[in-house]
Amino acid sequence: MQDEKDRNNLRDGENPEQPHSTNRTLSGAPSDEADEAENPEFAAPEHLELSPAEAARETALCGQTLDRIERMIVIAGVASAAAVLWPLGWQVAAGVLLGTALGWINFRWLAASVNAIAERIVQAQSRERGALVVARGVGRVGLIALFAYGIFECSVRGLMGFLAGLAMPVVAMMCEAAYEFVVSIRRPS
User: Fold this and answer.
1) Which of 62, 58, 64, 68 is nearest to 178 (CA)?
2) How far is CA 114 from the centre of its chain?
3) What is the pLDDT of residue 21?
4) Would you say 82 and 165 are in contact if contact means Cβ atoms under 8 Å apart?
């Protein structure tokens, strides 16, 4: 049996004294991928299953992160509106507040859409319907466009504030990234 294996290896151009390796270059020499696969530092991570307790903990942490981002959207929007009230006027401040409100709604609907898509992927018997997910996506954009048009018809200055308010979710996510960075530095390894 071993002789038959050695003959097959010789026919394939391999040396019978060397262990069989499937990671070879065109020249027949072992590739660097074989060295990386043998070295655990470079090995691909194995698929890990989370226990129900770990999965619940991860879900709770994601929920806390979303809650912090939503609070920060509101805080950043109110602070921005207060900051522009005196120098730029009430129209810009009102636009910032309205843009922040729509940015907050947009963020919540986006999070719900992502969760619905993930549920559809993970569970074959998902309660979420594809048409509802698409309607949420189109509805978000349509709602923002409708408000932007209405504000544009009333006040261009208000539209500038509205567009600034729509950016508050980005500001909130940047604050969350900074928060996570500081927490990760302080957390013992």
Assistant:
1) 68
2) 9
3) 44
4) no
- Residues 144-153: what's their mean pLDDT? 92
Residue 169 buriedness (CB in 10 A; 0-12 / 13-18 / 19+): buried
Is the per-residue pLDDT at 148 higher than 60? yes
Integer Cα distance of 116 and 110 in angstroms? 10
% of the chain beyond a pLDDT of 70: 71
Look-up of token digits 């969350």 = 176
User: Which residue did the predictor score with more confidence, 156 or 46?
Assistant: 156
Residue 119 makes CB contacts below 8 A (sequence gap 6+) with 126, 127, 128
pLDDT tens profile 91-111:
999 999 999 999 999 999 888
The Cα–Cα gap between 45 and 24 comes to 22
In whole angstroms, what is the distance from residue 180 CA to residue 170 CA?
15
Amino acid at 58: E
CA atoms within 13 A on the CB side of 45: 3
How many CA atoms, within 13 angstroms, populate the side-chain half-sphere of residue 109?
19
* Distance (Å, whole) CA 49 – CA 44: 16
Token digits of residue 35: 């060295």
DSSP E strand stretches across 49-106:
none
For the chain, domain boundaries: 72-186
Q: pTM of the prediction?
A: 0.68
Residue 137 to residue 7: CA distance in whole angstroms: 62
